[in-house]
What we know:
Elements: E1 2-6, H1 10-17, E2 24-26, H2 29-37, H3 44-54, E3 60-63, H4 69-87, E4 90-95, H5 107-117, E5 122-127, H6 130-139, E6 143-146, H7 148-158, E7 174-175, E8 182-183, H8 191-204, E9 210-213, H9 219-227, E10 232-235, H10 237-242, H11 247-259, H12 262-266
Parallel strand pairs: 1-2, 1-10, 2-3, 3-4, 4-5, 5-6, 6-9, 9-10
Antiparallel strand pairs: 7-8
Helix pairs in contact: 1-3, 3-4, 4-5, 6-8, 7-8
Bound molecules: erythose-4-phosphate.
Erythose-4-phosphate is lined by residues 6, 26, 28, 125, 145, 147, 149-150, 214-215, 234.
Amino acid sequence: MKIFIDSADIDEIREAYSGGVLDGVTTNPSLIKKATAKRPGLNMKDYINKILTIAEGTPVSLEVLATSYQGMIKEGIKLYQIFNSVAENVVIKVPVNPSLQKEPSYDGIKAIKELTDQGIPVNATLIFTPEQALLAAKAGAVFVSPFAGRVDDFIRNNHEIKYDKTDYFPASGWKNESTGKEMEDNGIVSGIDLVSQCVEIFREFDLQSEVLAASLRNPRQVREAALVGADIATLPFPVIKSLLYHFKTREGMENFIRDSVPEYAALFEE
Length: 270
Ligand code: E4P
């Protein structure tokens, strides 16, 4: 499984890339806001150019802001024209359904197709059902991003369950102990279940889009995304680092350091 960093923070991205395990970057308007809030007066073009350069050789998703077909096409082309020459690694993120009303809009699907036809790779975002994923893949998106963590948050919120964002939510779902009801959203029992259903459909129908498991919150979710066959997981840097944690690893480190004899330590001082 490929690992992307889900961040627009240049220091985090640089540090994460230095480990040699990263395969791409995903950003969104909220991540850009968070990363740039601490840099007043920043030149956005220069800033994004730096991110693209750090990630050279791997894709970087930049999201459109518009909600209409024409607007998304215009912004997608503009982002691509401004930035793709830097390192040839820009992917345009397009919401699968940009409607702000209950009535869905087809503009996202049309924009995915049009940008794809123009040779601009698209990451279809805000995927919460396998049906959305199917349409996005058929329209030509190179990446289709189911938001696993937000599904778990949504299911827990619906059942008034208190949780910390990093709390594990079982991939196989969960019965609400107080009501005895299975917790689910429209036949999806967990975020990883959504990822798994997308993977299954893409395999069944030989769709070429990659499933990019997004909005992941903890190592168990990352493991499960890999086990169900997600092509990519995009992770905030703290989640990437948390993949390294185990109590016994830390305990082993303490023991090794305690047991080092001066004669052995002296080897490193020569
Ligand atoms: C990535 O493409 C998504 O924008 C991101 O993973 C969303 O994560 P969040 O649910 O933690 O905001």
